[in-house]
Amino acid sequence: MLLAAATLPLLGCGIRFESDAPGFLPTPSPDPAGPPILAERDRVARILETLPEAPGVATQVRSVHTAQLRALDATLGALDPPLSPSAPARAGGKTPAAPGGGDALVAVADLEADGLDEAGLAALDGIVPRAAAIVVASHAQRAVLLELLAAAGTAVAPAARTPWHAASPAIARALVDDLRATAYGVEVAAAHLPPGPRGTVLAGLGVLRDAESRLGALVPDLPPRPLGYRLPRPVTNPREAVLLATGVLDRFVAATLAAAPTTADARRTTRPATQDEPGDDTRADVASPAATAGSDGSGDAGATTTDATTPPGDDAATLVRLVRIAELTRVRCGGPLRPLPGLRPPATPSPTASPPPRT
């Protein structure tokens, strides 16, 4: 009787309870950072599926990509709402070709190159700032590994030559300042190395100086390069020289990747500064310092972007390019091959470390 009495007023008001009535809680909107991260995650997953179980460079590439995949998965899980790697809305990409003749690394190199052409790099300028850090880092990681696969004898197309761009003069100035300090450390390190390793380091220094010059052209009233910088460590022998060179290059890579969200945000409010003479740092970045002849600078043809106020550019591509130059130089200077900053697993404290003092 009580249920019937409560139902009658509701019927009189025209309220009906139906099984297909919409829910009272709204469905959360998808995070716009999700699709570009998911697309990059799928690229890395396809590479891991294609990598052969073989010693040598394949083992090194697998180790780096495994950490890279975990970092991308963790970022997807931290979105609001979280996005599963098995969710739909994946962007298109190359399907791994079945390796033939035992040359599986050729198929791996083809997958590494996916999205690293001019149009693919220019499209990075359209992603939201929240996705920029890890997506740019992941593209740069694949660009580095692509070069190392080429050095191992895998036939791949040269990396894209894109113009030097910066989303604002302030970003260009920060990159130039970091480049100058890094190049100074590399130069000091080279002076303490024997002739063979010194040539490799000086080749990398030449590429860094060329990048500094081209980015410096984007900065109004750029002051002259300082005569010196404070070094992070003393250098008196070849071992310390290698530690100095690899250390300053690693810090430069981290600082450059940290500029990705700022670059993505600046593109939404400012028109990018450009320097349309890209130079030639492709392929053997630290093997031919004199190879600085320019290309036609048409690196953004066919690109698309979600930003309607700023035309497609190569701001993110410049970050990828700088990271590729510095990381390859670091490895060739004697640094270990490892995931880039932002893609590394979190550091775990040593079990033998002493506890902090009590206060």
TrEMBL record:
Entry protein name: DUF4439 domain-containing protein
Task: Give the organism, scientific name.
Answer: Mobilicoccus pelagius NBRC 104925
Location of the region described as Disordered in the Swiss-Prot/TrEMBL record = 260-315, 333-359
Residue spans of biased composition, Low complexity class: 301-315
Query: Bias category Pro residues: which stretches?
Result: 338-359
